[in-house]
Sequence to fold (216 residues):
Amino acid sequence: MKLPQWLKDHSVLLCMAVSMVLVGVAIRLYPGGSLADPHSVGFDWTRNFFSNLFLPKALNGAGNPGRPWAVIGMAFHSLAEGIFFLRAANKMPSRHAALVLRIIGAANIAFNFLIATPLHDPMVTVSSTLGLLGLFYITVFVLKSKRHGLKVLCVACMLVFYFTLFLYGWGNWGLLAIMQKVSALCSMSLVLVVEYFTTREDFVPAPAVASGPQFP
Fold:
């Protein structure tokens, strides 16, 4: 069955939108409880982690009716990221970079949803590593281009991601809960900008400007 062209063109956006709606439902249904306050009610954006939504029982001990919504939402999020990297690979002027992005995209689609399972901790490490590797390859070619605004966005996102991972390794759960949302927002912004506002030509390195006197 051949998919309509509009569905192919907007598959990343559609998957992200579906993921956000499903996770939003899971947030509304989350009974409560966080690492900082096990007796809190509902989902606190400054204290809860998205991973809390995947628990069969909320941190306050109550059953978590939002878990199925969160798991399916995570599956659509993984699909969105995977398709994004596969499509970004087609814009790369380097075969090596394109191959790396295709592997990352396929891995995201196949395994990223495991973050919503008991394999959460090791899969966060794998997913973060792959995501940063993909962003690094994209950033390298963006920095060689003329897209100065995109250069700032890529570098800013990398700094946010690295700082978030630093907090995860350090164990600063209070600030990490906030930075997790900032990181997710940066990721979605970068994905949509690269997806909709770049072409293959944007990733072709800009010609070097020769210095010194020029002779015919």
In short: Confidence is low (pLDDT under 50) at residues 209-216. The first helix runs from residue 5 to 9. The radius of gyration is 20 Å. Residues 92 and 98 are 6 Å apart (CA to CA).
